[in-house]
From TrEMBL:
Keywords: Proteasome
Record Gene3D superfamilies: 1.25.40.570
Segments forming domain PCI: 339-519
Entry keyword annotation includes tRNA processing: no
Feature: compositional bias, Basic and acidic residues: 184-198, 567-577
Residue numbers spanned by region Disordered: 1-89, 169-198, 567-593
Regions of compositional bias (Acidic residues) in chain numbering: 71-87, 578-593
This protein's name: PCI domain-containing protein
Taxonomic lineage of the native organism: Eukaryota, Fungi, Dikarya, Ascomycota, Pezizomycotina
Family: Belongs to the proteasome subunit S3 family.
Amino acid sequence: MPGKTPNSNGGRKPVENGVQKNSKDVANDKSSAAKGKPAAKKGAKEGEDMTVVVPPSKNTKQSSVPPPADAEGDVAMEDSEKTEEELEVKVDPVTQTISDIKSNFALLDRAVALFDARFSLRALRSISSLRKRLNPDILAQVIAESYPPTSPSASVAKQLLSAIGRENVPLGRQSSGNEMEVDSEPKAQAKNGAKKDKEASKELIPEVDVFLAILVQVYMFDTKQFQQGANFSKYLSERIHSLNRRTLDSLSAKVYFYFSLFCEQLTPQAPSPQSPVVTLRPTLLAALRTAILRKDVDTQASVIVLLLRSYLLTSHISQADLLVSHTQFPENAANNQVARFLYYLGRIRAIQLRYTEAHEHLTAATRKAPASQCALGFSQTATKLLLVVELLMGDIPERATFRANNMEQALHPYFLLVQAVRVGNLEDFETTIAEHADTFRRDSTYSLILRLRQNVIKTGIRMMSLSYSRISLRDICIRLHLGSEETAEYIVAKAIRDGVIEATLDRERGFMKSKEVGDVYATREPGEAFHDRIRACLALHDESVKAMRFPMNQHRLELKNAQEAREREREMAKEIQEGDLDEDDLGGDFDGM
């Protein structure tokens, strides 16, 4: 009939490409499509026309143009996947910060369970990444979710909340994510999980309390709440003093560190005798005595460094020297604390005119300084003091020191100073001091640099003794800008006595006559320098061996294995004596046993 398709069957069976398909073919097509294969070969054998589905090429999949929507308005899968990925990437920063803080609780639990301080140090290292994201709301939410109202440490939580000004926040508040119900889980299971979470959160170890308190200290210091921070740190130090737990050692050291920083910022500042730094010293000395009795290495090292810093701020050099002589810095202290201790010890020795010891300590401090960007200020400060000490010793620092990364601009005033000392130009030396006096005072090296005037004069005299075989005292006075010939005569005589130059002084004729320079390698100086280098290498090797870490209780496992081996040997010897075992049973290894 016209107007009808030739393959019309009244809508009773499916038709594809003008060929009617039976139910078996449809089933085969479905199964093949589910397996990701083309249509079944059975229909092709029977001579039926099959629709071949050609998979899209890789170029079309990777093209940036999205596929058009079909007639029914369905959305392509690639777009839906992209939107899901974008939704997954977007994370609330507040939620992320809270989860990062709570992730450290597991580290502290492991530190207590395994009695291993490395996990506590990992938690403390995370503070540097958390401090920029801290605010009172985040801290209050973490404290409220961690402490139930019936917890024994609820009073500690209230003290933390009052320190950040959130006294009205109720304890035991759960986050919004815990209140949501998942459709796939029954409500009873969710309630049981919530009960378990509450039971787990009831018993919080003191290490978690102190870690949250350190975060509060960091927030107060960053927001410049120095007086509130000092009061809170005093309460926290008293609480730590009452707790006798070795797993709190690294945390208590950090508490005293921030306590000292708060006191340094309060008025009147050092070197005033009424400064809070001075009133803090009895607390630090008591903490040092307690740390020594408890063998608390971390707190002991930190408090010794803080006391030395306090004495140097008020210029109490004799008291700092007594502290160093009456206490022993722990050998297995952290590398950062060792670097600080060596720097302060080098500054004390430099002020006491013991330049050789100061040079050794400052060199070790610069070598132990961390190479990270956050420790750049310490490296610059230690290098500046080291350069001044080298000049006071009569040595000229290497030019490569001033070309190091991130050092060139900071060491530029000292570079000009070294140039003046190296040439022996007293006029340039005084000009450099006048121009950069504020920088030298800020670096606490101004008083040491003033001592270099005699060194500049000695260097100038040494350069003249090498250049001239004989030079008059009047020429020396003119070249070095000295006041009179008597002053030049006194300085030359002192340089000859100190061994700076090899010359003789003729007072009657008024000139200085230089001696011939001998062979340096004929003296003991090269051997002594070589010996110093070998000693430094051996000391570095010893420190590296001491710093190695070994598995805990490994010796017990070795003893157990040795005991088992001895028991097996006894059993084998007994069987040999009884005749149950011969050489053939041992596999020919009896002679070597």
